[in-house]
Amino acid sequence: MLGRWERLEPRPRARMLRQVLQAGLRSGFQRLGRFVAGHPVFFASAPVLLSILLGASFSRYQVEQDVEGLLAPKHSLAKIEGNLVDSLFPINRSKHALYSDLQTPGRYGRVIIAARKGSVLDPGYLDTVLKLHRRLYQMQVTVPQTGLNSFNYSFSYLCLPDDKNVCIVDDIIRAMEEIQAARTANRSVPVLRYPITPLADGRQAYIGHQLGGVQGWAGPEGGARVEGVRSARALQLTYYLQARGGLMDRVAAHWERAFCSELQRFADLHPKLTLYPSTSSSLRTDFQFSSVLARRPLLASLGVCGVLAVLCCSMRDCVRSKPWLGLLALLSVTLSGLTAAGILNLTGTTYNSTYLGIPFVMLGHGLFGSFEMLSSWRRTREDQHVKERVAGVFEDVMLRFSGSTLLHLMTLGLAASPLTNMEAVRLFCRTAALAVAVGYVYMLSFYSSCLVFTGYLETGYRHGCFCRRVPKPERLDSKPAWYRCLMHTRYQEEGQASASQGHSHAQTLTHSHPLQPPHTNSTHPHSAASADPHPQDSHLLLGCVRRCYGDWITNTYVKPFVVLLYLVYISFGLMGFLQVSQGSDPSALVAMDTATVLYTRAQHRYFSSYSPVIGFYIYESAPYWNVTVQRDLLEYAKGFQRISWLEAYLTYLAERNESTSQPRENFTSTLRNSFLREPQYAHFADDIIFAERGQGEEPDVAASRIFLVAKTTENKREEMSVLLDTLRRLSLTSRVRFLIFNPSFVYLDRYAAAVSSPLRHSLLAVVFLLGLSSLAVVEPLVSVWLGLTLLSVQFGVVGFMTLWGVELDCVSILCLISALGHSADCSGPLLCGFASGRGDSRTRWVRVALERHGVPALQTLICYCAALAPVGSVRSNLTHTLFRCLTLTAGCSALHTLAFLPTLLTFLPPSKTRDHSGGEGPRQEVECVEMNDSTRVVDQITTV
What's this model's pTM, rounded to 2 decimal places? Predict the structure, then answer.
């Protein structure tokens, strides 16, 4: 096994080239650190001023209005079909029958009326419903509300009129008016059929979406068994509005708000009825309402994260403690987010609720970078000048931090490209990429300058929190106990250490690889002990990892249980991965307890027996007089509830003892001059488009439509997706050119491919970037390990996400894309730290890597999870999806960084004992360097 891995090891020449490249990058970051440390005031003030200036651009803040464009695939066949349908049969052509959800209207008001007890068709309920209808019909709105130019608009002015200039209303209203008139006149009540019922004018009306919770009876009629309505729990009314031009659209918007207010007042007066309103703007309003609900929890998240960040940066030693750096790290993230938001506002970008996940992307990346810099700062020599210490931090940290930032930008940037078919995903990734890039610049400038200032405070022996100079030990002895505890530092020990520093360090010989570049933070494990000679004053988490957790996780008896835990992790992840389902319902991304959610639940409860009305459109001239074509069209509609002009016409010809197979002229002449002039069939004129052929010739049927409704079960959306694919495949082989359409198809059409393609693109970006990064990494196996870790984390997040009840929609995909960068932040430095060491056992290097890079990862995960906790309390489906996916991302990343990788690296490559320099053994060299600073001259023994 080891022989195979040995063949993967780089040749000495390639390894030397990588070391030269890495040394050049480290040297560049070292110079950048000295430059920042030399101008801390500029780098601290410039980002703040820039954020304030760009923050003023919030006067241009805009909210996204087109929710369908966000949540539906941008380029899909359903949208093309919808444009063709609207051009052939616009909604204004449907003069006699507006079928529910058949076409996408501009403005409308819709309400579901449910009876708490009994049936809505009972006389008392029926009269109340008709009373509500009259109130809505006569309701007026005033636009503008004040001024001399105010006008009152009623529904009769805004509605869609028919040929007689009368407002079009649902057929169930006409049926209920006929029932009420019959009861008033003491006549027999007309029988109401379901789902297609005859009206008094002879028309056949579909009421499957207007009457719900139906209990019926079956009786013989004409040799067939026809289902009648015995009772119904709910009914649905829709009021369509015209929105021509800006003024009419504003008036319609006012009418929609008045519609909801009127329904609320009516519900208060009639507690026996439950009303569920919905308007054309309900989805947009409730989708953006998640941002309103999340404002206070986000502030609470910031506060909780700030408290924990302060604790994570604090130590018992008051001088070496850096509590302000925790708050300054959050301030850096906040300023970078404000700057990114200002740039977006200036470029005219609109805001939507999916952007709620961007602060957590910035928070995870920014906090990890700050904790890594602080951990590296504590490993530098305290007798160095601040500029040299900052240069050492940049040399040690910035190469890895730049690599993780580049991975963030690559994954988000490729998902934000035009290859992404989901507008919400594309906009989120574009905005997140900008925020991460600005956050990286602010980490190099603002936070680094803050580190410089705290370094000067430490050099002057000032308190890390109060910035007051700590008294010497002889002065502290006379102070109270609480004061001595507050001012505790290693002041006296530093003096002793300074006096004996040359003798103690001169006796220490350290081993190093001959090609290891010299830098202040040596990669040898013994240097960690020499850099921190007082472990009792270390940070609490660092002490726990150093003395307890590192030994425990690398224990021989613990490793089998960790491997078993990983197998359990993979098993449950696979179980969830095989059950992934797509969440194409836009109502699952809105705030809870809103009109959209309540209306959707009521519709599912009472109107789930039938699918939405499917338009069957024959968009080319077809030989309808041909018996074969007639048989094919009847076969296509078989098994559906249908309103078909062709079927009614063929029945009409049969009743007149005429053949259905006629010459084209006779077939079309009878259709136009006889069939469509009958009162009960006149409404079919809206379903047929005639095209003139020539003078004296009979027009041809250029296009027509048929309405189909399928019987459904509980999995309504899945059945609609299967039905859509089946009918589309049928249209490719049919002799008649047809298409099917319903507005909900724009969410179903290839949704799985559209929503998952950004994740595939991001994974490709990760593979490319890891391959490219192997040129700059001395140990190429780091890229292999990092790639496997990212795939394992993604696999686990997808699996556990499904087991937790999260569907694959645009919000969960956003979290999965950001999870790539988050897991790379946590595990990348640990792998680099482990692979860069030579000369000791694997177990020893795993412990060192955990001390140096596992502790910053643990601190970041603690603050990150604490910031997520308040968001989980928001009453919104969107934030619940964010909370679950981001929590799983943090949990899976923590498992891999703190458990799986430390265990697996103890017995899997890369090797620690093999020498890559061509057979030379390790050598010992000591160099005496005289370092001058502003206060003293120190003889220091360093490793080469």
Answer: 0.85
